[in-house]
Amino acid sequence: MIALITAIAIVVYIKHIVIIKEINYSDSITDTQEKLAVLQSSTIGIGRILWLQLPFWSTFSGVSNG
User: Fold this and answer.
1) Going by fewer Cβ within 10 Å, which terminus of the chain is more open, N or C?
2) Which residues lie below 8 Å from residue 66, measured CB to CB, with a gap of 6+?
3) Cβ proximity of 11 and 34 under 8 Å
4) Is the pLDDT score of 56 beyond 90?
5) CA angle, residues 31, 35, 41, in degrees to nearest 5
6) What is the pTM of this model?
């Protein structure tokens, strides 16, 4: 599960890089704001996904320490 969630996060981070590269400040303000809003929403979403990893990491670290 840790690997799956991490893979999902990596895909979303690549998506973030693509969105950032698409932002052009010479475009209209509304287009730029729309791209920034998508980026912000995606960042919040990936935070929720990565939050799901916490129980797995605590189980993993408890097994490796003991």
Assistant:
1) C
2) none
3) no
4) no
5) 140
6) 0.70
